[in-house]
Amino acid sequence: MSRSLCIPNRVLCGALLVALVVVTGPLATERSCYAQPPATPLPVELRYVPHDAALFLYADGAKIWSHEVTKTFRAADKSTFNTLEETATKVSGMKVEDLKTVVVFFPKVKQPQDTDKTGFVLTFTKAFDKEKLATGLAGLFGKNAKLKVFAPDEKTALVLLGGDDTYSKPQLPNEDGPLTPALKAAASGKHTLVAGATFTNLPDELRKDDLPGQVRGFQPIFLADTLIATLDLGKSIDLDVRVKTRRAGQALDAEKALAAFAKLLGDELTRELPDFEKEATTDAGLKDVVKVLKAVVTTAKGAKFEVDGTEARMTATLPLAGLPLAGAYTAAVQKAQQAAAVSQSANNLKQIALAMHNYHDTNNAMPPAAVCDKRGKPQLSWRVLILPYIEQDALYKQFKLDEPWDSDNNKKLIDKMPKVYAMPGKHKPGDTDTYYRVFVGNGAAFDWLMGAKLQGIADGTSNTIMCVTAATAVPWTKPDELEFDPEKDMGKLIGMVVNGKAQISLCDGSVRTLSKLPSKETITALITRNGGEVIGNDF
Length: 539
Prior knowledge:
This protein is 33% helix and 20% strand. The chain contains 14 helices and 18 strands. It has helices spanning 11-23, 61-66, 68-76, 78-92, 130-141, 180-187, 213-216, 219-222, 248-280, 284-302, 325-363, 382-385, 393-396, 520-527; strands spanning 55-59, 99-106, 118-124, 147-153, 156-161, 193-198, 226-233, 236-244, 304-308, 311-319, 370-372, 378-381, 433-437, 439-440, 465-475, 482-483, 502-506, 511-514. It has a ten-stranded antiparallel beta sheet, sandwiched between helices. It has a four-stranded antiparallel beta sheet with strand order 13-15-17-18, covered by helices on one side. It is globular, with a radius of gyration of 28 Å.
């Protein structure tokens, strides 16, 4: 199933799927998601959406941007929203406040390649420049993107990805299909967000009996015909979710699945709350997060469910009055940035480990800790030696390996430090120091003069340290590593520099993130490659 749902390099698809998760959560209203149908034909932004699209999302951009919640977030995080506005202007030539509505659709998502065929429609409050938008989108999606921009009128842009003109013409005025009610709900102008899914055009794996246990309970929803949801922003966040089935019995099962989803969300948040409350004792911002999460739990538990013939329905509402949204937003953004930094640093270590393995495959050994001169004096770090294996071959060829790291030639290259050596959350523009270092000598995985063979690591590659986040940073080309002394506490050389956490990659390529370092004995055992020690339970 995961391969069928894979959507590589599709920002809009990711946004759509996230939106679908949000709107199928427990924040909704009791009012009907089916507004009275407008006069035919549909508004121009909805005429190009297939009435049986696999996925569909309509967003009232103007309403979202001007809502008090958004204003609160904009005031709390001016930097992010200023960047958003600058990016929007750069891509479209229009300001964010000029955007009226956004429509995104995926005709089919049966196979991974289906996600390449994406359509979205933008409407503006004034005329836009088609050529400028096309150029901006080409820069956003890349030169190889098969992208076409059409202008149904001077204020509407139709963008198709995937090189298929099938959807460049509007649907017939009398077109009818599973998502017709969703399109009519969007056309009513009453809803901030409208989302829909036609399950028969989603991956078949969703409808099979071998679903993973954690999602199997929701399969009655996937076996339905459609899911249509609306979300409204007002003095509360209101959501209405409807699942259309073919038989009354299926609707009953779908209602139970919706209730199970709301209960699962409420239970998970309730389970996480004590940890947040504990952290909130030392982080004032998290107190606001706790208040918001408790309100969401109350909403989840108060969600209502009903069945009307062949349709299952879930409604709920989250009152916004009194919620400390600005503080919660700021704290949540900070936490997300910290989590992203930890994840990015782990990915850096994985890329370094992969490069080490590829170097090993080519040279039948890992690199030495440094390039040394004839007298054995270290000249350049191992970080230079693996450049060809992190897609930096051109940079590698500019180094003179028979000269030290700070020679006239080599020191000119220090400013070209690859991103993989930069520490997320700490690295600033112009920084050329790295925290990613290795232990060297006295039986560690690295020696100055000769690289170790992975098959010769008697302790096992999964029990031997390859690279760590060090307590101090060094110029990335400088052969300055962590000298291993089994008599000393090597934990002092490992840094809790990834937002208060340390990270260690092992010689098998795996990465561990540690909130607390293990004992001196365990760290020593992990550093040696042939020491025969037993790894302690504290790792």
